[in-house]
Amino acid sequence: MAPRDTVWVFGDQLNRSIGALATATPETHRVLLITAADKIASRPWHPARIALYTRAIEAFARELRESGFLVDHRNAASMREGVAEHRATYAPDRIVVTEPNSFTARRLVVELGCDVVASNQFLCHPNDFATWVGTRKSLKMEDFYRWQRKRLGYLMDGASPAGGEWNYDELNREKPPKDGHDRWPVPADVWATTRPEALQRLEFFVTQVLPMFGPHEDAMLAGNWHLAHSVLSPYLNLGLLLPGEICDRVEEEFRAGRVAINSAEGFIRQIIGWREYVWNFYWRHGPEYAELNHLDARLPLPPLFTGAVTTMRCVDVNLKDIRERGWVHHIPRLMVLGNLALIAGVDPQQFTRWMSDSFVDAAEWVMVPNVIGMSLHADGGMMASKPYAAGGAYIDRMSDYCKGCSFDRTKRVGDDACPFTTLYWDFILRHADRLVKNPRMSTQVRAAQKLGDAEGIRHRADDVLRRLRSGRL
Questions:
Q1: In degrees rounded to 5, what are phi and psi of residue 203?
Q2: Is the same domain home to 324 and 270?
Q3: Closest CA relative to residue 320, chosen from 330, 309, 331
Q4: CATH number of the domain within which 408 lies
Q5: In total, how many domains does the chain have?
Q6: pLDDT value of position 304
Q7: Do 54 and 133 belong together in one domain?
Q8: Of 162, 164, 330, 360, which is most buried, counting CB atoms within 10 Å of its CB?
Q9: CATH classification of the domain holding 32
């Protein structure tokens, strides 16, 4: 006898252990998967993202069938039409769905009369986050992270943090390794599409890459697109891997003495601290957050982001990597691409759309807070306590990009002055009235106001911005 209920699984919930599917059996539930044409056609997504998404859904449908489930994997014009077609074909008594991962999808499942069950895809549900928030007057990611460590038990020795410290960031800011081109090989096929393959990538990371993650997590090399990073975010964001099993393996390697505390702590902080905080920040502040523009940034998205050639080596290297595989790690995203958009005054909504289109691990819940809040300070400090603005000196310190570049990172003015250095000081001067009130920025503001070449910086910044607009920088 065919099952009378259906579990509708979204394409970013591809795991038997998530939500409604965790308690479903082949005897009780049919599974519905929908590949919606309107979603794929709605934006100029990176081809690697489309391929990963569609192939992962196809692979998950095969996995479910092999385990005995009746699966309706439906290619439809839209999610709404896919559900209507499924109902017309199978007439299920109920369609059960795990809480989707976007505001739009959650509205849809309610409109369609689905039964919604709580998601366990993250380690901190918004209800738990609300408990942590309580009556706090300020929400700091570090405070949330420590609360997560205590309640989840990761890297804890009783009531104390392993090693005696909560955070080992001071050990994790080393310059790029000179032999970094060969130390961290990756499998030949960049993106896995099944859970077994994703688990293999997890093992690859914890055994071969994690030991060096901590010291070099902020470093960048032109010849190594991944360096010390896990490259697991696409699998986490599709549900092929779950945060708990990743943290369990990292803890295991640390307890076995194969990974130093700064690498284990630094990575677990990214998973249970940063990632879970961003997830809850998205739900807490609602759809309106995506439209914020606190700094009144109006520069249209520069053509270099959509194919124009640039002689800024740091930007050129990362845009080529993105075009090739749809991924660079978090420091190029924040301190090269996001930094340029911030100090140039790029429209935050246009930049958010470009970031979402360009990365294989893009999801609304992660891109909106990270671009609007972290990268562009368009929320005025709701998420980050200061703008992540920097000149060429930071990029030179943390990468090898400046070697061979046509611009001089030490110069603020002149035809060969580094655009990052020029625009950094111009950004500080442009927003001095706002930034001087920020304790973490007031020193830079006062230093900028003492510069003897402020007029020259303004003229050079005008030239850089003109060239950005024209696609000739």
A1: -65, -40
A2: no
A3: 309
A4: 1.10.579.10
A5: 3
A6: 96
A7: no
A8: 360
A9: 3.40.50.620
The domain boundary residue, chosen from 235, 252, 281: 281
Are residues 110 and 144 located together in one domain of the fold?
no
Phi and psi at 339, nearest 5°, equal: -60, -45
SS (H, E, C) the chain: CCCCEEEEECCCCCCCCCHHHHCCCCCCEEEEEEEEHHHHHCCCCCHHHHHHHHHHHHHHHHHHHHCCCCEEEEEECCHHHHHHHHHHHHCCCEEEEECCCCHHHHHHHHHCCCEEECCCCCCCCHHHHHHHHCCCCCCCHHHHHHHHHHHHCCCEECCEEHHHCCCCHHHCCCCCCCCHHHHCCCCCCCCCCCHHHHHHHHHHHHHHHHHHHHHHCCCEECCECCCCCCCCHHHHHHCCCCHHHHHHHHHHHHHCCCCCHHHHHHHHHHHHHHHHHHHHHHHHHCHHHHHCCCCCCCECCCHHHHCCCCCCHHHHHHHHHHHHHCCCCHHHHHHHHHHHHHHHCECHHHHHHHHHHHCCCCCHHHHHHHHHHHHCCCCCCCCCCCCCCCCHHHHHHHECCCCCCCCECCCCCCCCECHHHHHHHHHHHHCHHHHCCCCCCHHHHHHHHCCCCHHHHHHHHHHHHHHHHHCCC
Pick the closest to residue 225 from 328, 315, 323 (CA basis): 328
In CATH, what number is assigned to the domain containing residue 213?
1.25.40.80
Residues 21 and 137 placed together within one structural domain of the fold = no
d(CA 303, CA 467): 10
Structural tokens at position 183:
């130390």
How far is it, in rounded angstroms, from Cα 50 to Cα 60? 15
Q: What is the pLDDT of residues 410-428, one digit of tens each?
A: 999 999 999 999 999 999 9
Residues 29, 110, single domain; the answer is yes
pLDDT digits (tens, 9 = 90+) for 186-212: 555 679 999 999 999 999 999 999 999
Q: Quick one: pLDDT at residue 227?
A: 87
202 and 273 assigned to the same domain: yes
What is the span of the domain harbouring residue 166?
126-281
Residues 265, 330 within the same domain: no
